[in-house]
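User: I'm preparing a small set of examples for a lab meeting where we compare how different chains pack in three dimensions. I only have the primary sequence for this one, and I'd like the structure in token form so I can line it up with the others. Please keep the answer compact; I'll paste it straight into my notes.
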Amino acid sequence: MDKANGLLTLEEAARYLGVSKTSLRRWTNEGRLACHRVGVRRERRFDIQMLNEFLADGDLVVGKAVAEAGDVAQGLAEMTRGGMARHVCLFYRDANEQWENFRPYFLDHFKAGAPTVYLYDSSNPQDIARHLAEEGIDAGEAQRSGLLQLYSSRDTYLKTGRFSADLMIETMRSFAMDLIERGSKRQLLVGEMSWFFTEAEGVGEIHDYEGRLNELLAELPSVTIVCHYDMRRFDAENALWACCSHPVVQLGERLQRGFYG
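Assistant: Understood. Below is the structure token output for the 261-residue chain.
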């Protein structure tokens, strides 16, 4: 809290409302939620009474990621051409931003009873469980119910000790078909792409693999794939290639059309 004037910071206000900082920034930009601007940097500060009035407004749907999940789903739908399944390149600059940007995708599926397969590399199951706990979700129960499956990059992307685009395409197909055969109407597949930096044989096939995922998704219209790219590690050339292989790119609050297609 800003002790000088008793106002909440952006992070404190987001926690108070139970939404993300991304949503809070967007709502203030759109004029839906008033805020104070303080200091040379014009940082946002929030009055608790204003937040309570915002919560009490029956026309607003406020809750953990409900609004931003809907916004992401709408944005992606608008960017989907000819029924092509979704394939998102999600850029981030730190672990907090990674979850902040990804959470609407997960929560949109989770709240709809749609399963997620998460292939982790830079994160670990404990990190993911902590983030879910902050959303009031028990990771263990989510796994037992089949709404969350966790696999390491060593057991997926680098299962044979090297990366093979052919093998990984079939792995992703297998994950999707398994979920579809179990009766789920929507499926979310997630991959952290930092395994690229292991220097394992074949990692240079990453962009060929990403391009071919679009062909796979054309066969599987109920599937969404979100690929996590750490901007601190991927250089400009590889970041550009990632944009070229994805129909949709997310950077911070922005959803943009990628260069694929």
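A couple of notes for your slides: The two ends are 47 Å apart (CA to CA). The CA atoms of residues 101 and 252 lie 7 Å apart.

User: Perfect, thanks.
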